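[job 4417] fold queue: 2 targets
>>> target A
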Amino acid sequence: MRLSRLLVLLSLVFVFINCSKDETSAPDIDSKEEPKPEKPKPEEPVVPGVTRYFTLNEAVAFSESGNWLIIHNQDGELLDYRTFKYGDSLIFEALDSELESTDKLSITFVQYTLAGVNHLHSIRTYTGIDKGVVWNQGSSESSFSFKSRQERTTYSSKFYQQLSQKSSTNFNITVNNVPNIARYNLTSRQYGNTAGSQVFQNTSTLNINEVTLQMDVEYLLSIEDGQGNLRYQLLAPQETVNDIVLEYTDFSEYDHILQIALPEHSQLTANVWAYETDVFSGTPLLLSSQRSAGPADPVAKLGYIKDFGSFETTFSINTVDHYSYNYEELGKIPDEIIIMEKPAFEIQESSKNNFQFSININFLRSSSFWSFKETMSDNVTIQTLWHVEAPKTNSFKIGDLPQEIVQKYPYLNLDNLDYESTTLILRGRNYEDIINSMFNSMVVYRPIYEFINFYNINE
């Protein structure tokens, strides 16, 4: 009896297996089967009544001495803070009842660096951040850098210094029959600005002595003469000749010269960088440059050579009334650059705890800066830098740092911070672009970048 029951059971199992195989066999070739939707990835369980209001993945720690992340709400109320090291992931959660008054977040990074006897505290705050946001820092742009031309130039300078350590030869360059010299620059793609002067010379001969040049490199020598003409000459050093003698009459005129009327100013920096293609790859060549530290120049002149695929034009001028205007264009030759007159900007409250200003123009985002620096009798240097990035708003409130951090770093001197400046971005990347570029690998570039700075307004 038991044996018969066992045989019946085995028969049923065999039938079930065969039926299952029939059901799962390959469909007819002519049949159309709808693709099966992908199964959603399992999410971590959410505790009822608890909100995950901020997540930082792959944290980037720039300092080995101390890195902190502090979160306040839009009113400056402290929500939480943590210390972290490189690669950490930080998750911040709170009861819903604790977040009832929180609409936006302010995320602050604090870095402490001890270099010998020098104490540096670098602080940067991002205001107006949505609750629930996830930042993936490790695979994105540095949270302390906007990839500006200034930063790229700093990197290039180090690159050029490395190149200059290779074998090279000293040359003497002479240019005859120049109707006085307003300025000159000797540049190359590989070595950047090799030699130059912005000082007027009442002479008909330009002498550049004992300049180090590389044999396999093409250089561009640009000269603005005393009559306001801007010309250039390409030259390639030869091993058999250590003295390069040129005639100014053989120099070429630039294909296009952009002229910019200048107001009275205390500092000017204007450059044109040229790329071989329109994809901006490779190291650019500095085509022309004009710099000054005084009001002597009524006009800025920038030269362009149309053989190049694209250009990067950068222009920055500091006027005499604590104001600067800045313009950058990537791609084509700018149609014109007109310096914006100083807008009606007024600081109503300079404390970062309740910062407020008024302005009579529109802007995309702002960046404000406070600092303190002291050199003590034993040559110990103490410095604290605090930058606050904000969306299009005329005010923000930044809460105090937690007492644990203040007590851990006794040289912070937060009460002694002085308001230094506010930058308003008029055209370029908006606040969302910057956040996404720095924390979510969504890099956005704009062809035109225009911004203005207000310095020491209350001084």
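>>> target B
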Amino acid sequence: MVMRGLSMAAPGMISVAFAVAHAASLAGSTASFSKSTCALQRKIFQWINVHRQGWVMTEIYEGGCFCGRIRYRQHGRPMFVHCCHCRDCQRQSGSAFAVNALIEADRVEIVEGEPVMITLPTDSGYPHDVYRCPQCQSALWSDYGRRGWLRFMRVTTLDRADEFAPDIHIFTRSRLPWVRLPESAIAVEEYYSPAKLWPQQSLDRREAARLKAGSDR
């Protein structure tokens, strides 16, 4: 499901939104009000919360695990999307590749349930933390290197997984021979430099998230 958010408004609108939300709450204490009023109140609080985070929501993409115990919302589009053909992703997913959408951690909201973290070894020596549903064990996202501020969302756990096609295919040296890539696809045998391929807006978002977290990588 994709929800359209509220666009940017003047800073003074935040106080107006608080007033409207408060008035709606008072109305509810004396008389029942319509479902549309409740929906408006929820949307106002959602808009306020987004502005407090320091970024503006334009779209919300909902997703979850196979059994439905974990539900989440992804606020906005990812910075970049990988289709990874490395042997680790193949073994961990039981498939030919894994599709990961890179996005700031504070843009992912857990709506229902609580995932469990499983740490896997990597060739780099940095930990690979995979967050899974404790019941069906669906992998929802990863934190490569335990940065804390960056998430690699499993695109196919989104309700509308077709929204995000890969921007790049990585580690194609271990791509299975029967997997054919589009002629226009960007593909590299191993990894790549984000500075050379990411849009400037995505690079700016990545750097802002890193600085906000006080991380050196």
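[job 4417] complete. Note on B: Helices lie at 12-30, 35-53, 87-93, 194-197, 200-213.
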